[in-house]
Amino acid sequence: MDNDNKMYVREALFEAIQNQIDKxxxxxxxxxxxxxxxxxxxxxEAMRLIAFVLVREMNDMLKAGRPFNEARYIKALKxxxxxx
Length: 84
Known about the structure:
The chain is an all-alpha fold. About 75% of the residues lie in helices and about 0% in strands.
C-alpha cells in the first residue's frame, strides 16, 4: 500500500472513530478516548490505538463473514493500555 492509500485509510478510520465519539455510540469509544487523553497520550496516539481495535474487529468480521461484534469491540477498547 502506498503512502497516499495509507493516509486515506487512516483518515477514514479516524473519521469513523470521530463519528462514534460525536454520537456517543458506542459510548465506550468516547470514554476510551477521554481516558487515553487524561493519561497523557496525544490525540493522534489515542486515535491510532482505537483505530487498531476497530481494524482488528473489521478484519475478524470480514474473515468470518459475520456482522460487527460490538461487545467484543467494547471489550477490546477497555483492554487498551492503561497509564504508561
